[in-house]
Write a structure and sequence with these properties.
Chain lengths: 773, 155
């Protein structure tokens, strides 16, 4: 590969100056026009029939323009399984489910009117634990599951609460266990967490009398919002415009379509008005996707030499009240169920179960944090049982070039051994330090892998316009929520066009003007959008050469472009400036040759397949990104407080398009992982979410974040743009198990759940003492 | 109609006289009346620091201060930090160190950092951690933020 000029350099972020001066425009910063403010009336019970809604007093309240209930608006919506309505219809399925929405001339009037709505419920038996919900005699939450429309790669069981049963069978599980010298069985539990982006969910809609719907949204995917609204409301796509601003953090909770459609009937009643909804922090905690809780059982067969011969993995997921998106997390965790390890015989059953808890949905890692918690804790248990070095057990079973995943997909372009080794070296693996009195030190390591969990037809596209002066506009449909997409994509465009990056403009999407992008999720944009941008650049460049060849009367193969001019490599005097070519290109006689240069690029994966419904075998991964986390902890046996002394994180980026931003992502993901490992757990009492603010739900702040040593490996991704692959979610995955492994190393206590709060750790130390172990 | 009070104050170096609704927060006043939208709401109850502005040089959560309390005081928002098109050192250091991702907490974060440096030009890591512990960043740019503040120190 020729030497790269822009890709691989740490240029400042494209959005840097806007973001440090307060001028970066988020959705709520935009003046849109005459406004009506919307507020939701939420259910006060988790599972109940709606007997009656009396909105008469709310409608009479001064300033109130409209009250909408589910009866008026029964349209259904969903990404993979269409099981949701915008407002509860006939029954509510979780505490806090919207049952009505009020629009008023001020936020205060709307809030006051919400309190005047009276809802009569008849409570139904509820399900708060998916292990109960999966039983045949459990109360049914979705009676009409059989009638729901679903993408045919999911397998719901009508008449039960199972929204998806993903099955995977690789090799011969019975023979695998027969070949083992030892069988190791453990149960694990991962609780719900919340994303808590600092910007909550917000949306605004406007209906124009000519039938055009304009939507402003914090959504991670404007194109999916458009697609789902089009289907749900039966409005053609060219009559729906979805506009993105900068997004104040996504982490998965703003994927799919969430709140945009809620306001459409009100907008239709008041054409020209902007109807806006802004979620409070409490609403954001309670009413948006949570990470699904996971109850899992692992059974592994292992030989004396440490080789794993068989894995049986049962996962029971708390899908919450609606699983339109969650069914795919359950599927992704299922087809990835060996984690970063090559295990020949696998039997996996992954169940998505409806409960009356908050809605489950995508979170950074998309099931991998939860599923690989079990894998990485199990690897530790195996090492302990065999008295082997946990690092060696990982390397022995770890994936290598040509290994197969649980789904039987062959993996390429990886160096998992090295991911493990760099973090091990950093924390001086194998050297046990002793703590001061009453304090115990330990070291732990965990590996990780993730591929984007996307449908095999998830596409990207790009348009590049070359301006009259040789500068360029890159138009794409990906969103900027902090990950640095605008910067990385500009660098790819700059590299491919050979135009300096400061001469390239790039903006966040507007579906009326920017081309299709599936979703900014799954750590896929650098790869997928990057590939389409590279193709668009190559298309533009091809046109430039073609036009220049005509203009200069020189064969294309003799031409070269240096970013400013196109010239003959045989005679540098034969040249044209990009300015001369970019506009309507004409000869000195005045005869026209070609109009403005517009490059286009499209991309859809060609290496993915559907999976066999019985065995789960096939190619679900676009690319696989590996990494590892290593930690050293000190545990205070008096208080149960864990202090993280060392935290090292590695990721194989293929090619770091912007090393500084890549490292920032690595740090950010590691901190989010650390925060979930030590602090975060959504608590419910009969479906009522108890911790709905930052005081009750703690996330990592600067004063409890240790220094992170980061390592970016670059094993090129053969088909990625300039060898790059996505890394946004991955650094989070290994942190919780690495910390638990280190705590286990320090205390000789196995923790099968997290967060490892002082209370939980202290209790375990006490229990161990009392049992005399 | 809600009762209003006339208040006199300085915002980003300019003297202003405005009517403020009794009961409205300073955050709401700054965004809706002064149209300075760099200040953000993240929680509305003083837990996240996204709405930090400088009041008489001290960082405050503007969601916890009433608009009428602005009377007779000096307000600095993120828009007032750069002078004549020149970025403040902290702003430049945040860019150089990639000390933000989504940018939503950034105005509050930078103003808290500015206030710290005004008070203590050479802060230790512990000083930084203490001064910024009320500013949450879910993107997890803390390590970069520490680096940026260190790089802006001594001036």
């Amino acid at each position: 590969m020729a030497e790269l000029k822009t890709v691989g350099t740490s240029i400042p972020r494209k959005d840097a100056i806007e973001k440090v001066t307060g001028l970066a425009e988020f959705i709520e910063d935009r003046y849109m026009g005459p406004m009506l403010y919307a507020k939701m009336k939420k259910s006060t019970v988790a599972h109940a029939k709606i007997k009656n809604i009396d909105a008469s007093r709310a409608l009479e309240h001064p300033g109130v323009k409209a009250v909408l209930t589910g009866k008026d608006y029964p349209n259904m919506i969903g990404l993979y399984l269409i099981d949701r309505t915008f407002l509860a219809v006939d029954k509510v399925r979780f505490w806090g489910e919207p049952v009505a929405v009020v629009a008023a001339v001020t936020e205060e009037a709307a809030a006051e009117a919400v309190e005047l709505i009276e809802v009569e419920y008849e409570e139904l038996p509820a399900v708060f634990d998916p292990r109960e919900g999966i039983k045949p005699d459990a109360p049914i939450i979705h009676e009409n599951l059989a009638d729901y429309e679903i993408v045919p790669i999911f397998y719901p069981k009508p008449g039960t609460n199972i929204a998806n049963h993903f099955k995977l069978r690789k090799g011969d599980i019975d023979r695998g266990f027969e070949e083992a010298d030892m069988i190791i069985e453990r149960d694990y539990y991962v609780p719900q967490m919340q994303h808590v982006p600092i910007e909550t969910h917000k949306a605004a809609v406007q209906w124009s009398p000519d039938g055009k719907l304009t939507v402003w949204s914090t959504a991670q995917s404007p194109n999916v919002v458009r697609q789902l609204l089009s289907k749900s409301l039966d409005i053609p796509m060219h009559k729906i415009r979805v506009i993105s601003s900068y997004i104040g953090g996504g982490f998965g909770c703003k994927a799919g379509a969430s709140i945009e459609g809620l306001l459409v009937p009100i907008a239709q009643k008041y054409p020209g008005h902007i109807i806006r909804i802004v979620f409070s922090r409490e609403e954001d905690m309670q009413g948006t996707f949570t990470r699904q809780a996971l109850y899992s059982k692992l059974k592994t067969g292992v030989r004396k030499d440490g080789r794993i011969t068989a894995l049986q993995y049962e996962m029971i997921w708390d899908g919450g009240a609606y699983t339109e998106y969650g069914v795919n997390i359950v599927r992704a965790a299922g087809y990835s169920s060996t984690g970063a390890y090559d295990i020949p015989n696998v039997k996996t059953d992954s169940y998505c179960v409806y409960t009356n808890n908050s809605i489950g949905g995508p979170v950074r890692g998309f099931g991998m944090c939860e599923m690989q918690w079990g894998i990485e804790r199990q690897l530790e248990a195996i090492a302990r049982e065999l008295d082997m070095d946990p690092l060696e057990v990982r390397k022995l079973n770890g994936m290598k070039e040509g290994s197969t995943t649980a789904a039987g997909q062959v993996v390429h372009d990886l160096d998992y051994d090295q991911c493990l080794q760099v973090v091990a070296d950093k924390i001086s693996w194998g050297k046990k330090e002793s703590g001061s009195e009453g304090k115990f030190r330990g070291k732990g390591i965990a590996g990780l892998v993730k591929c984007p969990a996307q449908p095999s037809n998830a596409a990207s596209s790009a348009i590049i316009r070359i301006n009259e002066d040789g500068t360029a506009h890159v138009m794409i449909g990906a969103t900027e929520m902090g990950q640095g997409m605008l910067t990385a994509i500009s660098q790819i465009a700059s590299e491919a066009l050979n135009i300096p990056v400061d001469k390239i403009d790039i903006k966040v999407p507007d579906t009326d003007f920017t081309p299709y992008e599936w979703q900014s999720v799954g750590s896929r944009i650098t790869y997928t959008c990057g590939t389409s941008v590279k193709r668009a650049a190559e298309d533009a460049l091809g046109q430039i050469y073609c036009v220049a060849a005509d203009l200069l009367e020189t064969p294309q193969e003799d031409l070269s472009f240096d970013g400013k001019k196109i010239f003959s490599t045989k005679d540098p005097e034969i040249k044209a400036t990009i300015r001369e070519v970019a506009d309507s290109c004409k000869k000195c006689t005045g005869e026209g040759i070609a109009g403005p240069i517009i490059g286009r690029g499209s991309y859809v994966p060609t290496n993915m397949t559907n999976l066999d419904p019985e065995t789960g075998q096939g190619n679900p991964g676009l690319f696989y990104c590996f990494g590892a986390t290593g930690v050293e902890v000190e545990v205070d046996s008096e208080t149960g407080v864990i202090t993280v002394l060392q935290l090292a994180s590695s990721i194989d980026a293929g090619k770091a398009v912007n090393p500084q931003l890549c490292e920032a992502q690595l740090h950010g993901g590691t901190i989010m992982g650390l925060s979930t490992a030590l602090y975060e757990e959504v608590r419910f009492d009969k479906g009522i979410m108890l911790n709905r603010n930052f005081t009750d739900y703690k996330i990592a702040s600067i004063d409890n974040t240790p220094h992170i040593d980061s390592f970016i490996l670059e094993t090129p991704e053969t088909k990625g743009p300039y060898g790059a692959r996505g890394i946004g979610e991955q650094p989070m995955i290994g942190v919780a198990p690495a910390i638990a492994n280190a705590v286990c190393n320090a205390l000789d206590i196995e923790f099968n759940t997290f967060p490892l709060t002082p209370e939980r750790v202290w209790q375990a130390i006490k229990d161990k003492k009392n049992s005399g172990a | 109609m809600s009762e209003k009070i006339t208040i006199n104050f300085t915002v980003n170096g300019e003297k202003e006289q405005r009517e403020a609704v009794v009961g409205h927060t300073l955050l709401r006043f700054i965004r809706n009346e002064l149209h300075l939208t760099g200040v953000k709401e993240g929680c509305g109850i003083g837990e996240c620091g996204a709405c930090v502005v400088l009041l008489d040089g001290k960082p405050v959560n503007s969601c916890l201060v009433l608009a009428v309390e602005l009377d007779g005081r000096e307000l600095v928002t993120i828009e007032g930090l750069s002078k004549n098109g020149e970025l403040d050192r902290v702003q430049q250091a945040f860019i150089d160190h990639a000390a933000f991702q989504c940018g939503y907490c950034t105005p509050g974060m930078i103003l808290s950092a500015r206030a710290l440096l005004d008070r203590k030009p050479n802060p230790t890591d512990a000083d930084i951690d203490e001064a910024l512990s009320g500013n949450l960043c879910r993107c997890g740019a803390y390590q970069e933020i520490r680096g940026a503040i260190k790089a802006s120190s001594g001036k």
